[in-house]
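note to self: dont lose this again. the chain is below, predicted strucutre after it. 212 aa total, dont forget to put it in the shared folder this time
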Amino acid sequence: MFLEKKIIFPLFISSFPIVIIFSVFWFLSLDVQWYKKEFKKFHIYEEVDKNTADQSISNIVLYLQGKEPLDKNVFSPQARYHLFDVKIIFQAIRVVVIIFTLFGAALLAYMAYALKWQDVIKVFSESLIITCIFLFIVGIFIVFFHTSFEAMHKLFFVNDLWLFDPSDPLIQLFPEKLFFDLGMRIYVFSCLLSIFLLLPSVYIKKNFKINN
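---
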């Protein structure tokens, strides 16, 4: 049990927030239909031709997934350089999600084999509680979104290519208020998923105590 408490449990608990948040980020950030709804919400179609905007967001999402190149006729050289940096981040997130998912699944399989089921439930629920606490901290940064948004760019980008002229087509498609909505969407979905997974484990854990 020493190995589990000192190594296995902390590794599993720490990997869970990464899998949940990064997975939600990956899938929601690449939702083309959601972006089209945001374009309507913020009247972007009044500034950018609808067909051009729709084709551009589809092109960007496929580019970030590594499925097609960017349209050079739409995006400026600065935008293409910046989106290349963004693509690197997305691909890194994908690798992290895959590695940590496989790693977490291996740890869970080991615990299911080596430990009593109530110990597995206990660790599983603790990992979700840690995830909820982490999300609470993230929520504080969302409250100060503008400052956090700038700090994030300075942290993840080693150049100033993310500082665009307001007339650049990329900025017209992606105003900061759209990113705020995206951040809130990722945050809410991560919270709901964590709670959805946490409640059954708490229920099972509680009933086990009652019955024993």
